Amino acid sequence: MSTSDNCGCCAGVTPLTPVDDLQPPGQPALALRVGTHGRFRQSMLADLADEPALENLTTRASDDPAIALLDSWAAVLDVLSFYQERIGNENYLRTATERRSVLELARAIGYELRPGVAASTWLAFTLETAPGAPLETRIDIGARAQSVPGQDETAQTFETLEAIDAKVRWNALPVLAAEAVPPRMGLRTMYLAGTATRLQAGDALLIIGDERSQDPDNENWDFRRVARLREVLPADPSDPKDVGYTVVTLDRGLGKPWHGVHPARRQSALLRAARPRPPVRLQRPRLAGDAGQPARHLPRPGRRCQAADQPAS
Question: How far from 270 is each of 205, 231, 243, 261, CA to CA, in Å?
Fold first, then answer.
């Protein structure tokens, strides 16, 4: 039963700011707002009763000029507390959302982010050979070229970075479509010529070079396993020289950096260790861009290995 002593009608309002600043762990953002518009407004209305000079101000109507003034200041405090929370979150790497904040935090420990770089590509210009066309010309800086977009793609526009001299007789020069990628320290991706390597995920690979022909104890070789494969078909099936290539991702990088041992450096050979019964038979796919040399020496593990008579087809 409600009486005049417990109805709560005489309790008035109580301040609601500042709110509790406790930050639970593992949160994606920090809650740093000390209040909102409604909380600030109620807190200022509660403070009116504590001011003896304002004891005659008994109205709490929103259209009263005095209450409207408090409402305006509550809006100002709401905006300030919002930006206070955003600035506070930008002070920590985990909660920062602005790139500039991350850059400044990195600078605090002496690290400088690299500037953004636009996409680049190589262009091959073919001059007009019709009668009367100039035999040579100069292509100035800023000459534009546009890519041919595929389905659901957007054409990309590129501009030349430097002026070049072009000649009609250079039209006969073929475009370099591939280059050799020799093994290097930490390399996990290898490119093999052709797509019929018969490799599978989990196969063992042995990468050795001509160093062992001069020094049987040379340690520049690596034994790795295939993590995954990706076959790239020839761009021009009618070109007998374009046989495509296979991208092989290894289970870990080449070399032994903790021992300072580099992978094979000269005329590297890639041998595939099949996994049937011993003796283990080795087949040798060619490295993409490399004519390849037969491997005459193998590492000396305590296993029987016999070189294949023919390279992998």
Answer: 7, 17, 18, 18
